[in-house]
């Protein structure tokens, strides 16, 4: 597909239908993407990989390709007449103070806060009712705001802190240790920390995890042996001791260590994939603690939540797909000695502790329900939440008598509530002052049938009074994988979409965790097509019930959700007008050869597992299913050049295939954010620019000459 002129006026709004309307097409000069003769052989089947060269993120050739693609993409986006209006509205709506839940460390109360348009949240603190002061300001870490704070951990007495930073969105972190009182750095910066938190052992040192730095590109080379280290303050990082993961017998892709609140135990988790873990412990009160096995298989997700002396409390889905809390003594902690404390129910459990109680948050059709239990497993009360939506943050330290929880849904900005653990009473602590009226919007949950008859829930949010006439611009957003649950939460960018008369729909697809392990497994490996079928059925429901039509439907998702969009648009290109795959896993035959991608095999399987698995994966892999002569929807692929989670080569290859084979006149563009990663820590300024482009592209390719609701824009301009 070369130098194609775009017929942009595809469908006009109802008021314009009677009169023929045209506009100047935007010409896209697609860069030429060379092809190479790379061929892989899988079980006797030869599979060409003509764009393999784009996997080399360090080559000058790839860098030049990125620049040319961005020039073509931004040349198009700059011609969209309302792009700047969207950016201005996003900035206006975004510009309100945001506050995170306070937490106590030593003599201070700490909290994250953003005054509105700051690129990164600032950490503040104060003593009792004293003066507020800045503790850490990540906006000073780099000039362009692309260095972010990605973790903060204090010693038990609050006298020292260690924090992690990410540069350019990379998963590789640096660790910095400071004296909490003076805020002075107390030793050299630690480097090359990855997929890790920091867990202190007294004031002496802390545990962290990382991989050996790979040969070749640190952004894309495979990393698969995670190691847990102990860093003793005052010593060089080169002397850090490997606690677990350093031998062939202990080789795992993901290893983590956490010290119990009473500092008695070190718990170690070890996994070969994103689901299932082994569990070990060490008694830190002993001089040379031995490694004790709690669980020696990866058949369940099991982790410690609390201990009272030698009595351990574990959360597990072993023999309990929806999870339960069990107890066991540290002297003999294997599963045959576990006793149920909070039994499994029909709803999925997320458990936390605080103030000497357990808080069990359940998902009931993706909606929060919270129960409070004592340490004997007795129900104390159900916490009556402020509304129907998502609650989070229940929990704190054992001595806390108050803590803070958050509440939100798709049309209600998140607020904070101060909760009394003994009485169960709470009061609103903080409410955002935002230029958005939740009362103007409504959310409704519907259930629809997927291809195989499975009932799937979906929450649809839109402005009250919206006419179901099939002409509403609609974004269908999905994920469907890795046991991730999509629960209702407010988004500034979605608020701007809905202000313009847009509908926002989120189905809870199989592969997620909304209905426990069985729901997750139903969307993995040889069941992965169920996820795409669920998403397709959601689109068909929206069209059949006149929320929208093909001409006004956009599908969107990121990471595993990017795969979802890529698979859906290649299987059913007739179903949507716009496709918006973000940082997607698009080359399913090779995903496991990059960074920690092999750890995703629990969900996906790999092309090397068996001929059956290879054929199944090849059957939906987006890169391998772009077909010559097919009319694909208008597509804006988005990725970051520093993404070392889902390497950008996935998106590069997919965009190249689309540009070569697109038979229609819809644009197939790729927007590559420079000095950015998988998404976490992205500066606010970049996020606003990205969504102005994404929404601008979407509205424009739905046929809009101007934004549907210009009154909103005029109102804030005036």
Structure notes:
It catalyses: Hydrolysis of Pro-|-Xaa >> Ala-|-Xaa in oligopeptides. Keywords: Hydrolase, Protease, Serine protease. By secondary structure, this protein is α+β, with helices and mostly antiparallel strands. It is built from eleven helices and 41 strands. The protein has an eight-stranded mixed β-sheet, sandwiched between helices.
- The beta-strand count equals 41
Strand coverage percent: 25-35%
What's the overall geometry?
A: globular
Order of neighbouring strands in the sheet with most strands: 34-35-37-36-38-39-40-41
Whole-angstrom Rg: 26 Å
In helices, the fraction of residues equals 10-25%
Low-confidence stretches: 1-21, 714-718
Derived structural class? alpha+beta
EC number: 3.4.21.26
InterPro entries: AB_hydrolase_fold (IPR029058), Pept_S9_AS (IPR002471), Pept_S9A_N (IPR023302), Peptidase_S9_cat (IPR001375), Peptidase_S9A (IPR002470), Prolyl_oligopep/macrocyclase (IPR051167)
Protein name: prolyl oligopeptidase
Enzyme class: hydrolase
